[in-house]
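can u pls check wat happens w/ iron/sulfur cluster
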Amino acid sequence: MCLAVPMKVEQIQGSIAVVISAGMKMQVDISLTPEARVGEYLIVHAGFAIETLKPAEAEETLKLMAEMAALAEDGD
Amino acid sequence: MKYLEEFRNQDLAQKLSLKIREVAGKDRISLMEVCGTHTMAIHKFGIKGLLPENVRLISGPGCPVCVTPNAYLDRAVALSRKEKVLVTTFGDMLRVPGSSASLEQARAQGAAVRMVYSPMDALKLARENPDLQVVFLAVGFETTSPTIAATVAEAENRGPDNFFILPGHKLIPPAMKALTENQKIGISGFICPAHVSAIIGLEPYRFLAEDYRIPCVVAGFEPLDILQSILMLAEMIVAGKPAVLNEYRRVATEAGNVNAQKLLSKTFEPTDSEWRGLGEIPGSGLRLRPELARRDAEKMIPVKVEPTREHKGCRCGEVLQGLIEPPACPLYGKACNPEKPIGPCMVSSEGSCAAFYKYVGVAR
Ligand code: SF4
């Protein structure tokens, strides 16, 4: 039931955000994530945004993975 | 899509797989995922094929529809057959067989059942049909329950009075406790659900690491997320240092979604709850708070519910506990398939039997 794909916020009106996913526009309720802003990515479940995506953390995680993987290559 | 392809990099996946092999050594490690979306991703991306033989992945009770007992479904069917009642539900509940009928079958016989994508759509139907009692089937884990709490709050603030829910929500951490205590399963670590954790944060898993010495890692849904979390779990298991770690920091935070938590505790309170396969688990369900009793379909709309019957031969209960894999069920792929499901684990796309059927198939 969980949608793993983050959706980009195009527009916000009150507690409703218009998001884009795979080229399609959709309305989602943002009453659970009032901090959401235009341009950010949201995680959506059952018509509600449940969290925002944090790009800096995503970069950090990818960096960590690359480091772990590099260790594997060296035979650690 | 940003931050999707990056987490599917095959070269990195191979390297992480090597690293897991190296860290795990010869230790026997059994990791359970308790989220149906993880179960699907593990099969879809062939994660098991990237792991050494001594690192085993077990699917737990990750599908809310699957763990909902027949008695709940039978009540929903009875409600849908009652005059002036409209039952609304997420699509995956429609085909789940109850004791004698599914909601879909009841609808074919004239019962009032509508599928919705969001609980807000159910509220809208209540506003559009003031002469009907509109009931939403409130099934799901901590990811879903806040969306229903928000809908109930909206109904309380602006009406209407003819909107009800049938509470069937389940809480994941109490189920993890029950699974950990079952020695037959023998869990050595948990891959924690991504979006349940986005709501509840890390704290509710702490007792598993501290009291049971079982490490937990909150993981995202992409292949690299899952591999990385397996690596983090293997490191903690081998070092004998259990903790609760977060691999999915880009979405889930330490504290979780505090807005959602506040709304949840304003709307619901924990109660003992029956899980298919796992039985009654203390404090593992949610009921409406007493001041919201007028929104409770079970209390407000009396119906006669048929006596519960289990599906003969279905081994969903053992599948949900990770005690057997779907092909061990004699009906798997034969009498029971996605077109003609006998048990709930074959209905919902994230049910273990359905995910296994789709990605692994029948012949082994
Ligand atoms: S294959 Fe079908 S009958 Fe067997 S356990 Fe799964 S859902 Fe039940």
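The domain at 5-74 of chain A is CATH 2.30.30.140 (SH3 type barrels.).
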